[in-house]
Structures are given as C-alpha cells and as structure tokens.
Amino acid sequence: MMQELQLNNQAVAEEILALQLPAYRVEAEIIGSDAIPALRDTVESIMSCGETFYGWREDGELAGAIAYKIEDGALDIHRLIVHPNHFRKGIGRRLLQYVLQEHTQFKKFIVATGSKNVPAIQLYLSEGFVEIGGFEPVPGLPITNLEKVIA
C-alpha cells in the first residue's frame, strides 16, 4: 500500500531510518564504500531534510520508500530505498513509477546513484532514464547521474 509519509511525526521518521540504514548498508557493500551520507542520518536529520516521502507498506511494515525535492523545475529523487527483507519484489519499481505517474506536471526527473549499483542503474534505465554523466564526491566513490526528460 502506497502512502505519503509525514516527516513531522517522529515515529514515522524512526520507521524511515530503520528502513534506510539496512538498505544503504547493502548499497555500501555493492559500491565498496560507506561514504553514503544517508548512513549518517538521524531521526532529526530525516525530519528536517525537506524531502517529500512516499512509502510502501506490506502487512503494516514500511518495506520501501522514495523521497524527492523539487529543484530548478525538476523532480530530484534523493532516495529510493527498499528493506533487504523485501528485495526482488518490485517495490522499488512501484515507488518509482508512482512518483513518475503522479507528477506528470514535471518534464524532467533526475537521480544520482553509485556507479557500481548496477541493480539501481538498470531500474532507472528500464523506466526511461538515461545516463548523463557523473562525479566522484570522495575518491573511489563514482556516482552516476541519470535523467528522464518528457517531451
């Protein structure tokens, strides 16, 4: 079940953090770096991040979430997280498709992910994103930028 998550609710922010930490630990293993800023988040930093969150629940448990900000007329996806217990169920794809379908007023969607995170890159490519370059925020941590532009 999809729902908007209210960040002003501390219990919700605690749920997001409990989802996010194991998900990003798996990504850290995949990309060979724990320099992912989300691994240092706290309940307070999530509550004050200014992102809009949608979550997917299974049996009442927060199994996945997507978060974004609107920046320079584009919808910038900041997080797409699925708890490792719920990998390979299509939750990440459902979350991504929901945001793309619910925000058709935007013509540009952008996201960045670890260049070695092949599953994430494949997901974005399969939903019409294209690679547009990248950067290395810290040595040894290449990041790929992707965008989807609607004509």
Strand content: 25-35%
Please, what is the average pLDDT?
94
Q: Largest beta sheet: what is the strand line-up? A: 1-2-3-4-5-7-6
Please state the second-level CATH architecture: 3-Layer(aba) Sandwich
Q: Describe the main β-sheet briefly.
A: 7 strands, mixed
CATH superfamily: Gcn5-related N-acetyltransferase (GNAT)
What's the number of extended β-strand segments?
7
Distinct helical segment count = 4
Ranges where pLDDT stays below 50 over 5 or more residues in a row are: none
CATH topology assignment: Aminopeptidase
Task: Assign an overall shape.
Answer: globular
Spell the H/E element sequence.
Answer: EHHEEEHEHEE
Radius of gyration, in angstroms, nearest whole number: 15 Å
Q: Helicity level, as a percent range?
A: 25-40%
User: Which structural class is indicated by helix and strand composition?
Assistant: alpha+beta
Q: How many distinct domains?
A: 1
CATH class: Alpha Beta
Give the distance, in angstroms, between the N- and C-terminal Cα atoms: 30 Å
Describe the structure.
This protein is α+β, with helices and mostly antiparallel strands. The protein has one domain (2-149): Gcn5-related N-acetyltransferase (GNAT) (Aminopeptidase, 3-Layer(aba) Sandwich). It has four helices and seven strands. It has helices at residues 10-31, 43-47, 91-102, 118-126; strands at 2-5, 52-58, 61-71, 74-82, 108-114, 130-135, 143-149. Strands 1-2-3-4-5-7-6 form a seven-stranded mixed beta sheet. The radius of gyration is 15 Å and the shape is globular. The chain starts with a strand and ends with a strand. The mean pLDDT is 94.
